[in-house]
Amino acid sequence: MKIVVANDHAAVNMKKEIMSFVEDLGYEALNVGTDSEESCDYPIYAEKAARAVVDGEADCGILICGTGVGISIAANKVKGIRAAVCSDVTTARLVKEHNNANMIAFGARIVGTELAKDIVKAYLDARFLGGKHERRVHMISEIEKKQN
Ligand code: RB5
Description:
By secondary structure, this protein is an alpha/beta fold. It has helices at 12-24, 42-54, 69-75, 89-97, 113-125, 132-145; strands spanning 2-7, 28-31, 60-65, 83-85, 103-107. Strands 2-1-3-5-4 form a 5-stranded parallel sheet, with helices on both faces. Strand 1, helix 1 and strand 2 (28-31) form a beta-alpha-beta unit. The mean pLDDT is 98. D-ribose (RB5) is lined by residues 8, 10, 42, 65-67, 69-70.
């Protein structure tokens, strides 16, 4: 399973920690974020990661900026992306179980490295529950289809 990882300048170190962590768990990690701490624009990296997921190059994605918010909002503009900001382990599990989130996001300025690893593991270990949740996820896709 391949996981695409994107970040802006606020999350270079966190990205490195998370990439090693997912590789240690046995996943393949694809880095499309910046490796420089010079100020940059997170939508660029959000879009690269989101397109890797919708194009099938990656199975899911991890987005990291200062808060996780900007980069997730940008990724969610790509059709087919369900990116969810997670600052705790329970949310990370539920966004997979209920929302079938194909990307998670968090903030390097919000969560510490150990919590971030726990968030990632909770998300990767979880499985979509389907059933009524499938219907709701389908309804989200239908809203998307109404846009231009
Ligand atoms: C960059 O300073 C910061 O705005 C960005 O990392 C992120 O937090 C935006 O949502």
